[in-house]
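Per your request, structure below.
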């Protein structure tokens, strides 16, 4: 199976927003060090594994604390 054939999970934004206390998008973006536009895209497309991991860590969490099925995928 080629690398491109693998299905990649996209993590939903809502659990990240909940973990952050439901701040405005601009506030969340500033807290995790990304552009507001990036967070807006995440609302539609979800986060990659790397984005989800980085965002969780920037909020002081492990991704498993935000997405409870992190190890299942």
């Amino acid at each position: 199976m080629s690398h491109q054939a693998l299905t990649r999970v996209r993590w939903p934004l809502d659990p990240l927003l909940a973990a952050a206390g439901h701040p405005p998008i601009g506030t969340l973006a500033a807290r995790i060090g990304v552009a507001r536009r990036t967070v807006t895209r995440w609302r539609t497309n979800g986060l990659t594994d790397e984005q989800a991991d980085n965002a969780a860590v920037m909020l002081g969490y492990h991704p498993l604390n935000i997405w409870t099925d992190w190890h299942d995928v």
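Residues 1-5 have pLDDT under 50 and may be disordered.

Regards,
D.
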